[in-house]
């Protein structure tokens, strides 16, 4: 599903993305992850069990107990631990409930089936990553025809395609890919030069949540004369991804840099570089804030990683669906850009302590914000 159209990314947009990327280098104060989504759903549930303890803080007028459905492409992936926490916390605030459904391995037909079931159940709203440019058009229209609002989160259709979802909550994956590639060229160790090999490590080629990051990076590397090779691993986290990287590296020992574009592969790349003592020999860049990733950024084994605010992708999606319902449709969902926040060695400190915002701890805590906010 890659398109050559991403070679047309305007220099103005790329520069804007680059400036935001660098500006935000110290702006994010959250943390790592790796708790299992299945575990937290089993221990805390996907509803509003904790609502009673907040009953002394009423919100809004008395309203129905709204039920939302969060369709997902990798339901057990550790990245979405924070997203589930965001959903749980919002439901606890409002007495709502949600279901976490979809596919474990990015099977589009399973996600569409989950959407159809959600529509049949007459839920009050659906959140769904649009990982395919056309597969979700019919169920989205069916939902809207039944008065059920639909918001895309984490992944949206590419430019030139139309899905009638009401809003998108997530980062611009194309611009993020371009910004990461630019940062690697400017700050990567070892330094890259014309002809250097860079591996673009990706779990599921073609799915729009991560393929578009690769597509955003391609023209940046191409312009610099870099030999950018896409390396497919596995939709399953852990050893399947790690083993694919080991196998690929055995035949490409002249690779200078590995750019991972998803959470699982970022953990695997970080562990691979650390385990094989490749720091300074093979550079690495991650995506998201898994524990192996932030530890590797802290040690200098990875140049940086990107925080796309997984918690917000859950909390904000449900908040907008809730507001649409309680306002009778007056509060229409709007796009939320969750940003391209780079985390480097100098700013990774706060991520090294586990907390709920980044999905590394289920504990609810209150953190002190930074004394100064970069701008």
Structure write-up:
The chain has helices at 11-23, 37-44, 81-94, 108-120, 137-145, 173-187, 208-223, 239-250, 263-275, 291-299, 310-326; strands spanning 67-72, 97-102, 126-128, 150-153, 167-170, 197-202, 227-232, 257-260, 283-285, 304-307, 336-337, 341-344. The radius of gyration is 20 Å and the shape is globular. Helix 1 (11-23) packs across helix 6, helix 8 packs across helix 9 (263-275) and helix 9 crosses helix 10. By secondary structure, the protein is α/β, with parallel strands linked by helices. The protein has 2 domains: 4-27 and 173-307, Rossmann fold, CATH 3.40.50.2300; 37-170 and 310-338, Response regulator (Rossmann fold, 3-Layer(aba) Sandwich). The chain is built from 11 helices and 12 strands. Residues 1-10, 12-35 and 43-57 have low confidence and may be disordered. Strands 2-1-3-4-5-11 form a 6-stranded parallel β-sheet. A 4-stranded parallel β-sheet has the order 7-6-8-9, with helices on both faces. Helices cover 37% and strands 14% of the residues.
């Amino acid at each position: 599903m890659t398109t050559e159209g991403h070679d047309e990314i305007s220099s103005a947009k790329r520069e804007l993305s680059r400036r935001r990327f660098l500006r935000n280098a110290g702006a994010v104060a959250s943390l790592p992850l790796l708790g299992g989504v299945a575990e937290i759903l089993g221990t805390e549930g996907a509803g509003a069990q904790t609502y009673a303890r907040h009953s002394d803080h009423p919100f809004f007028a008395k309203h129905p107990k709204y039920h939302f459905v969060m369709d997902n492409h990798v339901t057990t992936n550790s990245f979405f631990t924070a997203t589930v926490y965001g959903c749980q916390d919002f439901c606890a605030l409002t007495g709502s409930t949600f279901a976490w459904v979809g596919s474990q391995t990015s099977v589009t037909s399973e996600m569409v089936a989950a959407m159809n079931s959600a529509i049949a159940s007459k839920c009050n709203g659906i959140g769904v990553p649009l990982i395919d440019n056309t597969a979700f058009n019919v169920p989205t229209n069916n939902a809207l025809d039944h008065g059920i609002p639909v918001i895309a989160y984490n992944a949206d259709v590419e430019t030139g395609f139309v899905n009638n979802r009401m809003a998108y909550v997530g980062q611009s994956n194309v611009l993020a890919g371009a910004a990461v590639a630019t940062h690697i060229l400017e700050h990567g160790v070892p330094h890259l030069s014309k002809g250097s090999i860079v591996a673009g490590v990706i779990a599921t080629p073609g799915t729009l949540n991560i393929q578009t990051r690769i597509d955003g990076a391609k023209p940046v590397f191409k312009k610099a004369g870099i030999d950018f090779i896409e390396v497919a691993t596995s939709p399953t986290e852990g050893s399947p991804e790690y083993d694919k990287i080991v196998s690929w590296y055995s035949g490409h020992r002249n690779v200078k840099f590995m750019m991972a574009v998803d959470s699982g592969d970022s953990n695997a790349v970080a562990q691979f570089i650390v385990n094989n003592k490749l720091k300074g020999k093979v550079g690495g860049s991650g995506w998201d804030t898994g524990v192996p990733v932030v530890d590797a950024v802290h040690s200098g084994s990875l140049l940086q990683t990107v925080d796309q605010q997984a918690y917000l992708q859950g909390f904000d999606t449900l908040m907008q669906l809730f507001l649409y319902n309680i306002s009778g449709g007056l509060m229409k969902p709007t796009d939320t850009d969750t940003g391209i926040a780079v985390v480097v060695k100098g700013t990774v400190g706060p991520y090294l302590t586990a907390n709920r915002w980044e999905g590394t701890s289920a504990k609810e805590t209150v953190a002190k914000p930074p004394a100064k906010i970069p701008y």
